[in-house]
Amino acid sequence: MKIPFAPKSRFSLAVVVLASVPLSSTMALAQNPSCAALLKANYADVTITAADEVAAGKLWADEPAGPAFQRRISPKHAFCRIQGVIEREIGFELWLPTAQEWNGKFLAGGVGGDAGTYNYADLPRGIDRGYAAATTDTGHKAADGNWMLGDAMRLPNFEYRAHHQLAVKSKQIIADYYSGKLQHAYFVGCSGGGRQGLKEMQKFPEDYDGILVGAAGPKTPEMTTRRMWELLLRDNNPGVMSPQDWTLVQQNAIQSCDAIDGVKDGIAENPRQCSLNIDALACKSDKTAQCLTTRQIAFARRFYEPMLDENGKAIDSGLLPGVLVDSGRSRLAPATFGQALRKTAEWDGKDFSVKNDLPAIRRVMPDLAADQMDISAFVKRGGKFIQYSGWMDPAVPANMVVEYHDAVAEAAGGRGKAAEFARLYMIPGMYHCAGGPGADRFGGAGGDGTSLDAQHDLLTALEQWIEHGKAPGSIIAAKMAQDKVVRTHLVCPYPQSAHFLGGDPDVASSYECRNSDGGK
Ligand SMILES: [Ca+2]
After folding, report:
1. What's the gap in Å between 271 CA and the centre of ligand 1?
2. What are the sequence ranges of the domains in the chain?
């Protein structure tokens, strides 16, 4: 169904008017389509609950300073804000720039964790770049801690359906609103939002031309199992390791490899070259802040080694040396194994078993995994795919991200083939999506880079690749403090990493990209 105004006839009327007025009046031609009229629009399975004109810079009150992806930013440009529901529960927002400012493109923003919220960082970013931009809560609200026990569609909506629906419905509304052809569609997201992007690329290759995802866990069932296993391991062994002890393990590992990149700065460019070296930390006599007991060493080692099931079978590749073991409590893991699997909100974790629970969750949530290696359908359409992740991410193990990239490359016929459509940037010293000692601002999900060119902003790099055939190379990431750049760093496309050449270690131009074997 079309919305109840006829943009085409309106525009032809404008052309008639144009013929009889001076040229300077043509700016008035591209009037905005009616935002309010969308309230009465009729799209199958879509309920539009609000359609409001928002003036430039007037969406939210000022937000306190913090990482861009946690802020709610008011677009600097006016737009039409649509809020609505797809099917029964898939909440969504679609923001439409003015007809004059629309760049002919669509940008969707994913949301992380257990979703239930909107991506209010990439939507304003999209509007200010001229995109029609959309986001979905994936079919439930974060305020409902027991959402997995509700409507039967919530699990498949969360796994993959909501974002496909968002893409399909948004494209229909955009086409009608502007009465114009959509040129390109992009997806950006981090963490759970990254997984949503992988899923779109794998399952609905026609939805997006460009996918930009960070900290995207392809093997989410295994990753969620690890989160649960870690959580229970800590709960069942309270106080074995203090936060200072974990930091000791981390710093000891970083020291083993820090200088390999040419500069001892506390950051390992490629932590795959590091060793855990944990036995060297054994106390000679009494426990001090600088050493660990035998029990502590055995306990800590389990977090870094591959997770084993009850039969001793390795389920993953473990955490890299130098990663600080996360002491946070996942909400998603207990909900997945309690609510989704055992259909209860009261699960205490006592009967958790890696051997049984991992296959069970694969059965109950068959589309939670986003590890399809063959993405040829996406590639054949001209699709391009940029992935990034923090080498020091404790939640989405870096090994898992790298292994997926390698598997996609292998399925495509080798690294050379994969380079035609895929890039992976592993960010030294960065934690989950952002944060950590490394430079973490480069225009991934959550906000623009320090300038809108392909070297400082990954979304621009993806646009350039798709729209102008310019393949991305190394990028320059910035470390921010109080909204000022305090350091820049060269980030190389995997499998390369940056090597220090001399000069100021806090400036990207003091580095060059090399392969791990030293070659360029
Ligand atoms: Ca270093």
Report:
1. 10
2. 206-219+381-520, 222-364
